[in-house]
Amino acid sequence: MAKKLKIYFICGAGLGSSLACQMTAEDVLNQHGLDESMEHEAISSTPGLRTDIIVSAENFKPQFEKFDLDPAIKFVFLHNIVDPNEIETKLLPVIHELENK
What we know:
Elements: E1 6-11, H1 16-31, E2 37-42, E3 53-57, H2 61-64, E4 74-78, H3 84-99
Parallel strand pairs: 1-2, 1-3, 3-4
Helix pairs in contact: 1-3
GO molecular function: protein-N(PI)-phosphohistidine-sugar phosphotransferase activity
InterPro entries: PTS_EIIB-like_sf, PTS_EIIB_2/3
Pfam family, one: PTS_IIB
């Protein structure tokens, strides 16, 4: 059995929008038979995270660029964090890429 990927959903406070995005992503991944490890967190916690993928809103991209993060972390930036279609088209290819490594 393959190791579960660790996916963090990041927003400003780590409460509202990151949780909403995580819940939508859980539905999308379940529809595709994927069972990954998912958490949500505040952007201020990002430098200490050990994760495979970070999912966040596009407006946070400049803040991530200020952090010295592991270059192996894959980023998925969303225009609409609760749009299942956008999550499917942007997150699933990254998951499949990492699973096939």
